Amino acid sequence: MTAIIERQPRPWDGIIPEEELAIYRQAGWGAPSGIGRRPALLVIDVQYRSMGYTPMPIREAIELMSTSCGEYGWRAVPHIARLLEVFRELRAPVFYPYVAPKSEHNRGQFETKIPAIMDVPPHGYDFVAEVKPRPEDILIPKFQASAFQGTPLLSHLIGLGVDTIVVTGCTTSGCVRASAVDACALNFKVVVPQDAVYDRSQTSHAVNLFDMASKYADVMPTEELTKRLRAGVAQR
Q1: Does position 5 have pLDDT exceeding 70, yes or no?
Q2: 175 tagged catalytic
């Protein structure tokens, strides 16, 4: 069986040394887990706080909002929109785990590391218009990185009979990874569309996608994922 880490192209090409890729191949890491019969889509933290109000280079974007991923976030938006279109065609559930507005009593260790997250203006918490939720979608306010930590997400997923979670949004190394790891630990199949997630560091983005592909999730382009989702419905 061909391992995920052997597929091309991948965001980690030229970043993970070939010798290390060979070690993973030899050990058999990264085998695909596939897509189940009842997928759900997570759109994590796609709010203006994570990308700014208009597309611009990240160094310019963080001058206006220090939590912004700038252009990297905006590049992911069309791919997230495409997945939303497909999930709504399939009438599959869509969840929006999002950063809840913070107040003084929300301070903790994460805020100690990144004090600027306490200073996001109220409108920074709005959902990006191009991929904002609809009335039928389920909103999950969260205060930690994982969409599962301290939220009712798992209860919703069990109630809906979900077996596969598609994780989009940001950041690849933070909330996306934390949610993917927790979903895997809960025995869900996990898929991360590589062009529908984003991070302020492109190196961190690539390395974390490689690590998730090796251990926790199937990683693939949005185009490939949409074909698989539709093919799965056609076979039922």
Answers
A1: no
A2: yes
